[in-house]
């Protein structure tokens, strides 16, 4: 643990406010930001009770049956996922950017809720489910448009019930999947894939490099709602630590980055982030806003 680091047992919201005040802050966000919007996470405090086996990239590309399984489940889960609204955490990040107190936001989420809350300086590490891409010609289609095509191809198809899972997925019985018809690309008839990075797939190098530039230019890296289990996000915490950039982590439960953190808060984002906005933008408490 870095010298003078504060664990969740000793750190307070006031400590976090003092660390961020008058500094260039870049945020790294994860699924914990969106759980209050009704989107389940993979590794939250209760996720160990639920078996989560996300589809692998190679399985999707090579196996037509796996693609049918994916799109049937996505078809069932999309209406709830796409109707999710930004919560106080998203709105707090939007307010921080508008106030000039957040230099950039790197998100591992694919729900675009940060955008809907007003953030414009966003790097989507894993893409967004709002778009679908053809693996053959590269043509992009909106997920809403694809949902309409899926509905036309599968009239009357509806699972009796299902469990909502992370990233717009849904748990279905096998019988409901067998009859599901999957559309092809409108431009070339090729294979369609959500425009996101699957497990087993690499984040595009230009995206990673852009995120590294933001981290390198920051005075503080604020990690919010991520266990950092996946290297995709953890690499930025490691990069900040290597360069002596303080890392502040706010998350319910332990994270892979805890040993590298300067400050660690085991707390609800929906309480911490709004308090942070109030303190940094109000002018109270000794002029905490950045000059």
Descriptive account of the structure:
NAD(+) binds at residues 108-111, 225-227, 251-253, 269. Its cofactor is Zn(2+). Zn(2+) binds at residues 134, 137, 185, 188. The chain is an alpha/beta fold. The protein contains 11 helices and 11 strands. Residues 285-291 have low confidence and may be disordered. It folds into 2 domains: 1-39 and 86-126 and 203-291, 3-Layer(aba) Sandwich (Rossmann fold), CATH 3.40.50.1220; 50-83 and 129-196, SIR2/SIRT2 'Small Domain'. The protein is elongated and about 60 Å long. Helix 4 (88-98) packs parallel to helix 10.
Q: Can you list the strand order of the major beta sheet?
A: 3-2-1-9-10-11
Instruction: Summarize model confidence as the mean pLDDT.
Output: 89
What's the CATH H-level superfamily name of the largest domain?
Answer: TPP-binding domain
- The radius of gyration over CA amounts to 20 Å
Any low-confidence stretches, pLDDT <50, length ≥5? 285-291
Q: Structural class, please?
A: alpha/beta
| N-to-C series of helices and strands | HEHHHEHEEEHEEHEHEHEEHH
Strand content: 15-25%
- What is the CATH first-level class name of the largest domain? Alpha Beta
CATH architecture of the largest domain: 3-Layer(aba) Sandwich
- How much helix is in the residues? 25-40%
Shape: elongated
> Biggest sheet, open or closed, and with what strands and sense?
6 strands, parallel
**Total number of helical segments?**
11
Q: Kindly identify the CATH topology of the largest domain.
A: Rossmann fold
* Tally of DSSP β-strands: 11
